[in-house]
Amino acid sequence: MTADDSGAVPREADIAPRETGAGPHEGATARAAGAAEHPDGERTGAADGGHGDSDDDTIAIRLEQLILGSDRRYTPFQAARSAGVSMELASRFWRAMGFADIGQVKALTEADVLALRRLAGLVEAGLLSEAMAVQVARSTGQTTARLADWQIDSFLEGLTEPQDSGLTRTEITYPLVELLLPELEEFLVYVWRRQLAAATGRVVQAQDDAEMVDRRLAVGFADLVGFTRLTRRLEEEELGELVEAFETTAADLVAAHGGRLIKTLGDEVLFAADDAGTAAEIGLRLIETMANDETMPELRVGIAFGTVTTRMGDVFGTTVNLASRLTSIAPKDTVLVDEAFAEELGRTGEAPVSEADAKAAAAAAEDGAAPPPAYRFALQPMWQRPVRGLGVVEPWLLSRRT
């Protein structure tokens, strides 16, 4: 969003910013094909010397107007001045949202000005520091950028294939987006509110302020075995379908059993749970489900329990690193956990730490001194081994109690 010292003016159709949350524009659907005009009479896409835009540029501008709900009318400097913020801060917000510098082209809209004004207002009111406001812009931009790319690549692409009617993809795209836009926007807001409510509930239930950031969680990785070999053997489309099926199955299982999917990395997913029992159930379910699918390669899972730093929806720290290392050394179709995780399962009574403990609990139940143990899981200690960067660890093999 900074000025271009060279004075070069990029094609406006190539630098169109994306802004979420804009309402529908009354005049957007009425524009005919041809170069769109600003209220002040300037024609967009003038980089070709005023000879008019191509059809692709024209439809791109019309789609932008439809989605953003307003025309391009501000340069970055004008937008910053209208929002009452410095050009430096406006550029920081713009880059944090994931958009490239665009020089001083008249490419911004009323929605861009309003977004700048809102963020700056939160800072002025003392509700957010400037650094926190930039983080809000960055986290929102990264999340919605991936969502928008996925929707276009996977959803709209299939719906805009050339139809039997003879209409081109370009001719179908505009009315299709016009119909879908309000529905997708409402659904996005609904899911965001649901997720915000869940996240807020977890924060409120935290024991103290420190626990809001540094929390004790179970963190697990699930990794497809032999994925690199698969990339050489499968066609791109087949590989994409496999990855999508894996991510979809993993996401559904994690959510269904009370965990949270942190992120997907193609052949690997990272998940977290508030307690060891939930994470253990998720890890074993993943192994069992993938083993019953002949189209899927083998899976291995590593889970660790301990203090985790949460930031911008991600998790960091030694516990996360340990879970990753456990995954890399786990035999295929098994779940390896660390000692702290095993101790936590023992503490909550969901697994005996040793067979001696299991026999003692069974004997106490037979004598009527205690209720019979309700163990869900079994733990088998493995050989201690050095792990790079983490010292010597003692992995435990997790399985169901039979």
Biggest sheet character = 8 strands, mixed
Q: How many angstroms does the end-to-end distance come to?
A: 62 Å
Number of strands: 10
- Number of helical stretches of at least 4 residues: 13
Element string (H = helix, E = strand): HHHHHHHEHHEEHEEHEHHEEEE
Rg computed from alpha carbons, rounded to a whole number of angstroms: 27 Å
- How much of the sequence lies in strands comes to 5-15%
| pLDDT averaged residue by residue | 79
Give the fraction of residues assigned to helices. 40-55%
Q: Rough shape? A: elongated
Low-confidence stretches: 2-52
Structural class: alpha+beta
List the helices and strands and how they pair.
Elements: H1 55-68, H2 76-83, H3 87-96, H4 110-124, H5 130-159, H6 169-204, H7 209-213, E1 214-224, H8 227-233, H9 236-256, E2 260-264, E3 268-273, H10 276-291, E4 299-311, E5 314-316, H11 318-329, E6 335-337, H12 339-347, H13 355-366, E7 377-381, E8 385-387, E9 391-393, E10 396-400
Helix pairs in contact: 1-6, 2-3, 2-4, 3-5, 9-10
Short description:
The protein is an alpha+beta fold. The chain has helices at residues 55-68, 76-83, 87-96, 110-124, 130-159, 169-204, 209-213, 227-233, 236-256, 276-291, 318-329, 339-347, 355-366, and strands at residues 214-224, 260-264, 268-273, 299-311, 314-316, 335-337, 377-381, 385-387, 391-393, 396-400. A hairpin with a 2-residue loop joins strand 4 and strand 5.
